[in-house]
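[recover] target loaded
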């Protein structure tokens, strides 16, 4: 199948390479020349484990990259994979990149083509796009994406489920919708043959599935972080609590890791856009709890700054703070709404001298937070530090040797913002250890 993928970021670049690896002929389109140049040279323009290997394995015969929308002509299926960030100063999603992507490919669409929406959008957007596409003879399918950064290749090729939102009239899929579905089934023939569950539904449900899933994940994290607040007030241990309730299969242990909370380019902006959309639909009460989810999440960052102050005898002014981690989570160089950088910046603003390190995200972090100092290794960041904060749980930080790190710091004070270190081991090595929601 000839396919185009519009938007070559964390989602689109991986999707394009993955579809080519399934045997399709793919062209990836982006407005960012530097990104396209890198991809043309076989380089991943961002850090995503497995993507460089996938690009090398696929080669350039079936996978091309372009900034010219005319090169999408002849493709039968067009995946829209552009970002939908939070609108500046508002909770709503900014749909300008979706609009621009559709405008760019529109002149090259042919009757019978399928446009597949993968970007996360407010419910109702697909219906509008479908109507706008009607004169072109192309059909829209809404096919939300659930990949996690850091596992994007595997999640794309072996997703937990595939969701199709098809055009319907009175609850019945239209003939054009059935034809479009047959084309998308052919694109996904390999994963579907593996038995990956397929949920076929209407546009509204498909769009809601995506934001409902992210809202549930965000709620799960904020739930356990709310429990962490209770644990802090009572001397209880939130990690033991999470283990215990997680054994109940109805609850499950995944996404119950208390700590600095969620960040990234998805969960925070998605719950906010969802609340904004609910308000427009007149059902804001239904999602009022997401305000609390957001508030609990942001309180964790404040709590971390308070913890630093506590262990530094009441003030962080003039204190040297080493922050281990800049990415919003390990195995990514993505710093969008990173809890680690948010806390680092807060401490810096409150008078601390902050040095941040990260295995992959320093370049991105430096661009956005030029006031912070950066170091290449945890040892360099922690040199003469009054307190060390583990903010992103990279394996290399989980595996740090408390004795070796103890040699370079001024004071052995460790704040474990992700509850991944063994308190007994660090305390035995002479460190003051504080986790989040742990005694
Ligand atoms: C999230 C969803 O997990 C994906 O399913 C979805 O496709 C994606 O958003 C998206 O909408 O594109 P991602 O943003 O890559 O994926 O990151 P997650 O793995 O969900 O982690 C989000 C944040 O939650 C991170 O900051 C992480 O540190 C934090 N987290 C996660 C916790 O604080 N505790 C946990 O137990 C789990």
């Amino acid at each position: 199948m000839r396919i185009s993928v519009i938007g070559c970021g964390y989602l689109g670049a991986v999707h394009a390479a993955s579809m080519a690896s399934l045997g399709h002929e793919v062209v990836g389109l982006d407005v960012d020349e530097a990104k396209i140049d890198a991809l043309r040279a076989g380089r991943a323009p961002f850090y995503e484990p497995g993507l460089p290997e996938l690009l090398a394995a696929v080669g350039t015969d079936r996978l091309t990259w372009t900034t010219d929308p005319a090169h999408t002509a002849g493709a039968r299926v067009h995946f829209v994979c552009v970002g939908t960030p939070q609108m500046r100063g508002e909770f709503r999603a900014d749909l300008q990149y979706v609009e621009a992507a559709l405008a760019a490919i529109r002149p090259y669409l042919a009757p019978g083509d399928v446009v597949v929406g993968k970007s996360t959008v407010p419910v109702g957007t697909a219906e509008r796009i479908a109507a706008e596409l009607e004169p072109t003879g192309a059909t829209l399918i809404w096919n939300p994406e659930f990949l996690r950064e850091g596992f994007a290749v595997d999640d794309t090729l072996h997703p937990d489920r595939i969701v199709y939102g098809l055009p319907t009239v009175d609850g019945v899929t239209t003939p054009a919708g059935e034809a479009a579905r047959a084309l998308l089934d052919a694109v996904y023939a390999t994963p579907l043959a593996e038995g990956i569950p397929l949920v076929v539904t209407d546009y509204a449900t498909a769009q809601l599935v995506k934001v409902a899933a992210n809202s549930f994940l965000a709620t799960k994290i904020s739930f356990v972080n709310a429990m962490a607040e209770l644990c802090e007030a009572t001397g209880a241990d939130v990690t033991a609590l999470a283990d215990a309730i997680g054994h109940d299969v109805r609850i499950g242990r995944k996404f119950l890791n208390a700590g600095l909370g969620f960040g990234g380019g998805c969960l925070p902006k998605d719950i906010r856009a969802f609340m904004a959309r609910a308000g427009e639909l007149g059902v804001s009460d239904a999602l009022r709890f997401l305000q609390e989810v957001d508030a609990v999440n942001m309180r964790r960052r404040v709590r971390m700054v308070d913890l630093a102050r506590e262990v530094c005898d009441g003030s962080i002014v003039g204190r040297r703070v080493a922050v281990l981690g800049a990415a919003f989570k390990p195995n990514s160089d993505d710093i969008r709404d990173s809890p680690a950088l948010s806390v680092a910046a807060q401490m810096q603003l409150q008078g601390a001298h902050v040095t941040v390190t990260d295995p992959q995200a320093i370049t991105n972090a430096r661009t956005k937070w030029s006031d912070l100092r950066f170091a290449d290794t945890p040892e360099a960041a922690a040199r003469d530090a009054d307190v060390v904060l583990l903010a992103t749980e990279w394996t290399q930080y989980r595996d740090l040797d408390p004795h070796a790190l103890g040699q370079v710091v001024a004071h052995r004070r460790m704040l474990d913002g992700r509850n991944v270190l063994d308190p007994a081991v660090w305390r035995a090595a002479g460190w003051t250890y504080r986790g989040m929601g742990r005694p």
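[recover] notes: The mean pLDDT is 98.
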